[in-house]
Write a structure and sequence with these properties.
The radius of gyration is 20 Å and the shape is globular. With 367 residues, the chain is of the alpha+beta class. The relative contact order is 0.15. It contains ten helices and 15 strands. A hairpin with a 2-residue loop joins strand 2 (46-52) and strand 3 (55-62). Helix 1 (25-40) runs antiparallel to helix 2. It is 26% helix and 27% strand. The strands form three sheets. Strands 5, 6, 7, 8, 9, 10, 13, 14 and 15 form a nine-stranded mixed sheet that branches. The structure holds fructose -6-phosphate and magnesium ion (2 copies).
Length: 367
């Protein structure tokens, strides 16, 4: 029996350089200082502070399980310290994701995004952490479905006896605050009927059917719902375990070779292609985008984070990036028209109510 360890990723946008472009190194340093102290005290086994675009990502291992107040409190403190620096430097939108002044044991609902899993470490434990900017948690629906349920993506579903039984998808309805577990391949069409609406139905976890092994988890916080108004993107993270009876690292990455359309570009109100990039390109420029995703590859050993490998830093993804550029150009030419712009109920910025109000008296009944 291997050791039970917890891998926690907690992320937040606490302010950035040149608008919503990129984190400032001094904010990363401030967060690192807090986590280093926690590691010295034995609260954390290991940690790695990184970023994608304007979001700080705290990757932590420990033995306290998920949703632990010590770990969430630590992340909160790290973000507070980083936000102080952001305010001092006058960074843009300093403190934006720290929605509440008071921390009460758990960061859920306070702004930061969280993906955590507790698992028994396998003798060799390959894990991929995904970090996206300018999009929402539902952006993982399509690739996770392909990784764990599509035999045209994942050869192992067909030819690895340990995966052949399939996987269980735990899907959240973020509007109703409910969840449902569905089996693949048997209930594939039901799964797709839900997750094809990624703004509402979000894959939260994936389990291997034969032994309930937890294979993947996604952050599902939706800032706009939490705050009841627009306060920033959800910019999601995900953890996916790989190999040895789970999809191979290459099968996991394969799902990102198609730059699918996701919501969250410019002002959280536009669709654009999700572009897999090396970390050095994880910064949003054109029209505040297009949406980016990085993949960090790890081996976890006794809770130590060995790595990362910058997995999309590969010529094999150049064509995907090129395709993403073409799609970006194509969809951009729609300007303010749907389907580039999101539907009215999904937009995070809108003037529609004001425009309708202004024109109230000028609307005439159509005969
Ligand atoms: C924020 C983002 C940006 C902003 C845009 C307008 O994460 O993606 O596209 O929505 O830059 O920002 P404000 O309203 O702060 O000027
Ligand atoms: Mg920002
Ligand atoms: Mg962001």
């Amino acid at each position: 029996m291997g050791e039970l360890i917890t891998l926690s990723i907690i992320k937040a946008d606490i302010g950035s350089l040149a608008g919503h472009h990129i984190v400032h190194p001094d904010t990363l340093a401030a967060a690192t200082k807090v986590l280093a102290e926690a590691k010295r005290k034995g609260v954390l086994i290991d940690f790695y502070v990184t970023y994608v675009g304007d979001d700080i990502q705290l990757i932590m291992t420990h033995k306290k399980g998920v949703d632990h107040p010590d770990i969430h409190g630590l992340a909160w403190e790290a973000f507070k310290e980083a936000a102080k620096v952001a305010k001092d430097l006058g960074l843009y939108a300093a403190g934006q994701d720290l929605l509440s002044e008071a921390f009460s044991g758990n960061v859920r609902g306070l702004g930061p995004g969280v993906a955590e899993m507790e698992f028994e470490e396998r003798p060799s434990e390959p894990v991929i952490t995904f970090h996206a900017d300018k999009t929402e948690p539902g952006a993982f629906n399509l690739p996770l479905f392909r990784i764990f349920a599509d035999p045209f993506n994942t050869a192992g579903l067909v030819i690895d006896p340990r995966m052949h039984e399939g996987f269980i998808f735990e899907v959240y309805d973020v509007f109703e605050g409910k969840s449902v577990k569905l089996n693949a391949p048997e209930e594939m069409y039901d799964i797709l009927a839900l997750i094809g609406t990624p703004s509402r139905f979000i894959i939260k976890r994936v389990y291997r059917k034969t032994d309930n092994l937890l294979a993947a988890v996604v952050s599902t916080e939706r800032l706009n719902l939490i705050a009841g108004k627009y306060v920033g993107k959800d910019d999601p993270v995900a953890i996916v375990r790989a190999q040895h009876g789970l999809p191979a690292v290459g099968e996991v990455l394969e799902a990102f070779a198609f730059p699918h359309m996701v919501a969250g570009w410019m002002r959280g109100s536009h669709f654009g292609p999700l572009m897999p990039v090396p970390q050095r390109h994880a910064k949003c420029t054109r029209f505040d985008g297009p949406p980016r995703i990085i993949a960090l590859g790890w081996q976890i050993k006794n809770g130590r984070l060995i790595g990362p490998a910058d997995l999309f830093d590969d010529a094999a993804f150049e064509y995907t990036r090129f395709m993403a550029q073409l799609i970006a150009d194509y969809i951009r030419r729609h300007g303010p028209f749907m389907p580039h712009r999101l539907g009215p109920e999904e937009m995070e910025y809108t003037t529609l109510p004001q425009v309708i109000k202004k024109l109230e008296g000028r609307f005439e009944k159509v005969q």
